[in-house]
Amino acid sequence: MNKIWIVLKNEFLRRVKSKWFIITTLLGPVALVGFFVVIGFVAASSMTEGSHNIAVIDETGQLAQALYGEEDAQYHFADPGAVPLDSVRSAVLGGVYDGYIVLPAALLDGEGGVSYYSLKGGGISVFQDRLQQIVRQVVEKQRLAGRDVPPEVLEILKARVPVRMIKLTKTGEDAGNTGAYAAIGFVMGFLIYIAMLVYGSVVMQGVIEEKLSRVVEVVVSSVRPFQLLMGKVLGIGAMGLVQMTVWALLIMAGTVFSGTILSFFLKPETLNLPVNASQDELLAAANFTVPQLSPDVFIWFVLFFLIGYLLYASLFAAVGSAVEQQQDAQGLLLPVMMPIILSIMFIQPVIEAPNSTLALALSMIPFFSPIPMVVRVAVTDVPFWQVSLSFLLLFGSFLGAMWLSARIYRVGILMYGKKPKLKELIRWIRYA
Q1: DSSP state for residue 113 in the 8-state scheme
Q2: Given strand 75-78, what is the order of strands in its sheet?
Q3: Contact, 291 vs 297, CB < 8 A?
Q4: If 144 and its partner were Cys, which of 31, 98, 149, 237 is the partner (CB 3.0–4.6 Å)?
């Protein structure tokens, strides 16, 4: 244990004292949130920028005027005049119009469908959905008017009823914004995903560098390979534990003060409020409630990261000891990294249905569980037995993986000349 502690302390202090560790620790979550905000802003801007000039071919003789009244900054409906359809096509090909829409004569009788022609085929789904919404509203209004439906009924049909999403808890109800819980769960899951890959790669790279420089040959003369592996994995894990604890505290602080932060971006005039409206009035008008997350969420976040890292770091170390170059490790890394990649790919279904069979299964399988279980804990109330069982299975898998990795490590760090195949790795494990 004393030798393990010496290796652990050396690995920990050597990395914690670096400037990059301090910078990434303090700015990691902020940079991650900022990254997604920028991506979302750019995506939203690209979907909404520019105006679409659309020619209307109205075979019903009744809908064109109604469409002209639905124009906004993005959608301009134009009358091409009494010209042949081929002329309208040529105008689209020549760039006069972005496209043209055909409203068939039988549309008002509930038959046929609307067609939109453009060089881009309609573009992205957001444009298609918005165009469908405009046309549907116009057609519905005209159909009702054709059947002498009173204006009062039209107003009733136009009314929109907001639906509040309220989360049931063991202590009552939580009217917090469900989108906020989903965002917190996604950020936590993504942080664990990035951290396990980054810290696991650091362990592997360290093993490869020591093997290439032959430093390890000197070290193992006084330290057993298992002690060296355990000290290295735990030392870098301690560094990660410090970082993830700080990140958990930052996320907790951001959650507590999320209402105050959001209120800076809310404009009273857009919410039909006076200029001097209070923060509570702004948040109420925006239908936002500060998420009420239990401290247990952040504790499990740190614990699942720690054991998940230890599990994968031991496997990364075994891979590093079996090769001599970074590029030689790619083939061996694929089966190790595949569960991490799959777990992040399934994060959206887990957020949408945290109590589904898929979410439960993923959160119980040790090589997948660190990410989906943390997401589930952030999004919904997970029974304690499920979280505990998942953690115990993950911890047991770490012990088994460490045993296997240590047996590969003790042979691999002194093996040079060729990249081992799977049969050779199995033979290394079986050595007495």
Answers
A1: -
A2: 75-78, 52-58, 99-103, 115-118
A3: no
A4: 149
The residues pairing with 169 across neighbouring beta strands, listed in sequence order, are: 172
What's the CA gap between 381 and 186, in Å, rounded? 16
- Cα dist from 426 to 50, 203, 322, whole Å: 61, 22, 12
Taken in order of first residue, the domains within the chain and their CATH numbers are 2-37+174-430 (no CATH), 53-158 (3.40.190.10)
Any idea which residue has 């573009």 for tokens? Answer: 123
| Residue at token pair 């918005």 | 130
Both tokens of residue 331? Answer: 């083939």
Lowest mean pLDDT, pick from 111-115, 199-203, 344-348, 413-417: 413-417
Which of 317, 304, 319 lies closest to 231, judged by CA? Answer: 317
β-partners of residue 52 are 75
Task: Give residue-wise pLDDT tens across range 236-293.
Answer: 888 888 887 887 787 777 777 767 777 776 777 666 677 777 777 777 766 667 667 7
Cα(258)–Cα(250) distance, integer angstroms: 12
What is the Cα–Cα distance from 358 to 345, expressed in whole angstroms? 13
How far apart are alpha carbons 132 and 280 in whole angstroms?
37
Please report the DSSP string for 16-59 in residue order.
HTSHHHHHHHHHHHHHHHHHHHHHHHHHHHHHH-S-EEEEEEES
